[in-house]
Amino acid sequence: MALGLPVKMVVLTIVGMVGLAAMLVFINNSEAAIPKPMHANINGSSLIILSESPDLIELPVEVINSKDGTPVEKASAALSGMSAASINITDSRGDTVLKFNKSDLELTAQEGYLKLTVRAAGFREYENEFAVKVVN
Q1: How far apart are CA 131 and CA 13, in angstroms?
Q2: pLDDT one-digit tens code per residue, 61-110
Q3: Same domain (yes/no): 42, 108
Q4: pLDDT exceeds 70 at position 15
Q5: Nearest-angstrom CA–CA distance, 75 and 96
Q6: What does residue 22 show for φ and ψ, rounded to 5 degrees?
Q7: 3-class secondary structure for the chain?
Q8: Mean pLDDT over all residues of the chain?
Q9: Least CB-packed of 48, 68, 99, 132 within 10 Å?
C-alpha cells in the first residue's frame, strides 16, 4: 500500500507534464501569440469648446503599433461619453475620423471628457479616459 502512493504521484506528474508540453506546442511560443501594444493619437485639438464649435464635430484619430510606429489597419476606434458615441474603423494608414453632432453632447457641468477606446486583432486594447475635453 505504501508503495502505491508514490508510484501514482509519479505517473500523475508525468501525465501532467505531457499535457503541459502539448498545450505549449499548440500555443506556439512565437510573437504572434502575444498581443502587441498600440497607441492612438487624436490629430488636431483634443479640446472641444461647444460655444465655438461647428454643428458637426470631426476628430481625426491615428492608431499605431507602439513598438515600431507602423499604422494599425482595421482597428475599431470609439469615442464615448456625455450621452454620445462615435465608432469607426481605421484605413490602411491607421487613420479614421470620428464625428459628433454638437447637439448630441450633453454637458451637465462646466466640463466633461470623452473616452477613447481602440481594439484590433493581435493587439492589446487601448483606452484613454480623458482623450477629449469638452467645455462650454
Answers
A1: 51
A2: 999 999 999 999 999 999 999 999 999 999 999 999 999 999 999 988 89
A3: yes
A4: yes
A5: 9
A6: -65, -40
A7: CCCHHHHHHHHHHHHHHHHHHHHHHHHCCCHHHCCECEEEEECCCCEEEHHHCCCEEEEEEEEEECCCCCECCCCEEEEEECCEEEEEECCCCCEEEEEEEHHHCCCCCCEEEEEEEEECCCECCEEEEEEEEEEC
A8: 90
A9: 68
**Which amino acid type is present at position 35?**
P
pLDDT digits (tens, 9 = 90+) for 105-132: 998 889 999 999 999 999 999 999 999 9
Do residues 28 and 61 share a domain? no
Structural domain span for residue 86: 38-135
In the chain, the amino acid numbered 85 is A
Rounded CA-CA distance 33/50 in Å is 44
Let me know whether 108 and 42 are in one domain.
yes
- The identity of residue 102, as a single letter, is K
CA–CA separation, 50 and 52 (whole Å): 5
In the numeric block, the cell 502512493 is attached to 5
